């Protein structure tokens, strides 16, 4: 009997997932523990592994297709075995080929048997055998074979360095340009083709970038954004950070850590900002879970520092570093990406004076941090330089009015300019 591959339900709130890419084609042999496709939900990319040996008999969905959870997306079975021509919809009570919470439960139940031990050894051995193997999509492999390209010579832009067809095409393009560049470097004449247009590369928006784009568009079009810009003096905060890092070499505090603590303290004083708005209901949160926007190449992730109200600065710093590292390694869990009640987006490392951050739904506010710059000031008749940064609070005007938002900004300013208040 053919075994179903279905869209896994990875959390209690997950309703659908997006197919990123298949690692196998129909007719390919599949082994237990071998990744067969990649899916995404809530900006988390997950490789779905086979739970059965056999042949990939059917794929019902392709890249960028959005599929409801628990719906069948394919079948694994014996070669030639009959399966439905059309997607049968929600999974029945049959076996599964996908790693999900249900699959995890099945695995836990098998741990009591000797079969589980042998199965785990088999999967472990298969994964070890894949170490060092070039990771590439079937289309990329076929394209490389066609042009006699060694995949070892190509750097993949996909997850974990997976090579896509576009990477092979880019490698071919670079090779074709090499003789021309060499000729130009020797001042040798190169035939010109005035009628030939320059090549234009196109890229389909997909995966986490598509999810981010859809959410940005949804947020900006459905939420009445109002943004308040205000200046803060950064001198005291800069001095505090320097002193802390000089005294505690084992923990390096970042400005992100400090602003997370500042925001957490301010939210405790302004609970009407620490809210989410969904299904026409406002939820007031006791937990202050601060989301932090993290850019990774062309993608944007927003991991969450949970329960900041229970943390000191060093605890926040430790968790922030963990989340950033997990983001860079693409190992963020579903829990790391959900549950935020307020967001911080820091562009202070760039030459950006101020910007209008877009609210991270269902949250109701987001704080943007611009670059710190010196500017002259006059105090008691003496001219001196002070360090100024422009902060921007975007808020949902449906549920937060201007006066409470402005009061929150004043508290952020006070805590930034007098960081001793953070420990009082």
Briefly, what is this?
The chain has helices spanning 101-110, 114-130, 138-147, 165-185, 207-222, 235-247, 255-269, 313-328, 334-337, 402-417; strands at 3-6, 16-22, 29-30, 35-41, 44-49, 54-59, 66-68, 72-77, 225-233, 275-278, 281-284, 290-292, 294-296, 299-301, 304-305, 342-346, 365-379, 382-396. The protein has 424 residues and is of the alpha+beta class. It has a six-stranded mixed beta sheet with strand order 9-18-17-16-12-15. It has a four-stranded antiparallel beta sheet with strand order 1-8-6-3, with no helix packed on it.
Task: Describe the fold and architecture.
It is an enzyme of class 2 (transferase). InterPro entries: 2-oxoA_DH_lipoyl-BS, 2-oxoacid_DH_actylTfrase, 2-oxoacid_DH_E2_comp, Biotin_lipoyl, CAT-like_dom_sf, E3-bd_dom_sf, PSBD, Single_hybrid_motif. It catalyses: N(6)-[(R)-dihydrolipoyl]-L-lysyl-[protein] + acetyl-CoA = N(6)-[(R)-S(8)-acetyldihydrolipoyl]-L-lysyl-[protein] + CoA. The protein is an alpha+beta fold. The chain has three domains: 3-130, RNA polymerase II/Efflux pump adaptor protein, barrel-sandwich hybrid domain (OB fold (Dihydrolipoamide Acetyltransferase, E2P)), CATH 2.40.50.100; 138-185, Dihydrolipoamide Transferase (Irregular); 224-423, Chloramphenicol Acetyltransferase (2-Layer Sandwich). The chain has helices spanning 101-110, 114-130, 138-147, 165-185, 207-222, 235-247, 255-269, 313-328, 334-337, 402-417, and strands at residues 3-6, 16-22, 29-30, 35-41, 44-49, 54-59, 66-68, 72-77, 225-233, 275-278, 281-284, 290-292, 294-296, 299-301, 304-305, 342-346, 365-379, 382-396. Strand 10 and strand 11 (281-284) form a beta hairpin.
């Amino acid at each position: 009997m053919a075994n179903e591959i279905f869209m896994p339900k990875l959390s209690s709130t997950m309703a659908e997932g997006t197919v990123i890419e298949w690692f196998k084609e129909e007719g390919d042999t599949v082994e237990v523990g071998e990744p067969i496709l990649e899916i995404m939900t809530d900006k988390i990319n997950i490789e779905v592994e086979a739970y059965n040996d056999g042949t990939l008999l059917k794929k019902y969905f392709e890249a960028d297709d959005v599929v409801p959870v628990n719906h069948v997306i394919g079948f694994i079975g014996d070669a030639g075995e009959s399966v439905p021509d059309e997607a049968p919809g929600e999974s029945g009570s049959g076996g599964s080929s996908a790693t999900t919470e249900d699959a995890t439960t099945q695995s836990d139940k098998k741990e009591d048997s000797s079969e589980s031990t042998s199965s785990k050894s088999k999967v472990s051995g298969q994964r070890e055998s894949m170490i060092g193997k070039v990771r590439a999509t079937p289309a990329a492999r076929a394209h490389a074979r066609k042009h006699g390209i060694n995949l070892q010579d190509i750097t993949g832009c996909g997850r974990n360095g997976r090579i896509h067809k576009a990477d092979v095409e880019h490698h071919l393009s670079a090779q074709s340009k090499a003789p021309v560049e060499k000729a130009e470097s020797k001042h040798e004449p190169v035939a010109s083709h005035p009628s030939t247009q320059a090549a234009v590369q196109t890229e389909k928006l997909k995966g986490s970038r598509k999810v981010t784009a859809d959410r940005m568009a949804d947020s900006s079009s459905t939420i009445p954004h109002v943004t308040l810009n205000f200046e803060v003096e950064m001198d005291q905060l800069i001095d505090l950070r320097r002193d802390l890092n000089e005294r505690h070499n084992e923990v390096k505090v970042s400005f992100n850590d400090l602003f997370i603590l500042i925001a957490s303290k301010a939210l405790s004083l302004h609970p009407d900002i620490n809210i989410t708005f969904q299904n026409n209901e406002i939820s007031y949160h006791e937990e202050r879970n601060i989301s932090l926007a993290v850019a990774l190449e062309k993608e944007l992730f927003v991991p969450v520092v949970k329960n900041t109200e229970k943390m000191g600065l060093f605890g926040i710093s430790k968790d922030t570093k963990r989340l950033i590292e997990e983001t860079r390694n693409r190992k963020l869990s579903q829990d790391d990406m959900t549950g935020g009640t307020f967001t911080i987006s820091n562009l202070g490392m760039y030459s950006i004076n101020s910007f209008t951050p877009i609210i991270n739904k269902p949250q109701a506010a987001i704080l943007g941090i611009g670059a710190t710059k010196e500017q002259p000031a006059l105090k008691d008749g003496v001219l001196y330089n002070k360090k100024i940064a422009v902060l921007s609070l975007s808020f949902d005007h449906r549920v937060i009015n201007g006066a409470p938002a402005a009061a929150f900004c004043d508290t952020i300013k006070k805590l930034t300019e007098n960081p001793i208040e953070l420990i009082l």
